[in-house]
Input
Amino acid sequence: MTAVHPKALIFDFEGTLVDFQWLLAEAEAEGAAVLANLGMIPEGQGGSYADLMNIAWRYQENFGRSDGVAALSVIYDRYDADALTRWQVRDGVRETLKEIKSRGIFTGLVSNVGTAGMSRALESLGLGPFLDLAVSRNDARWLKPHPAGLQLVCRRLGCQAKEVWYVGDSLDDIKAARNAGIPVAVVEGGQNRLSEIREAKPDWIIVGLPDLLTLLASGQEP
Output
């Protein structure tokens, strides 16, 4: 069986390349309270941080109200900065990315982390040189599970969905890849429990990023 060589590999950031450190519950509670105060969701209604931002974007697109996006951006940037103080690169990530680049495979990043936090993290953690481009929540606007970020990377790299694999760690990563028509591998130990990941049936589940090299060499098709 011949080795599989996608034209590009696109990665999630937190939970995939680095460990998961965002204070998710706190950010979601704060974000929901802000949107409720702005009349964008009912009082007491919750939601994931991605769903909350996507609600705010719908208000901006449909009603010209930018106050929700602006308010959530301030909150999320603060939680990015907090997580930045604790993020650590996951085992084997640098070596794996270096090997992937040496094979002539394009590498991209799509993350719900904002531009400021991501740029500082990629520089301080030494990951920037291994990535051809990075798309943050500020670039894509719509957050995963919306496919906008993945579609943007494909356009910028000049790739079709069938030529790309996405590597993430969460249910939202799986949904975003499915929505974009892109095969997806999920790394264990990220945002969601392994039992939840298995139920969602990604194309592949890998223990760590170095296992991606084994997957590439195995010839397994999605």
In short: The chain has two domains: 8-20+88-218, 24-84. The first strand starts at residue 8 and ends at 11.
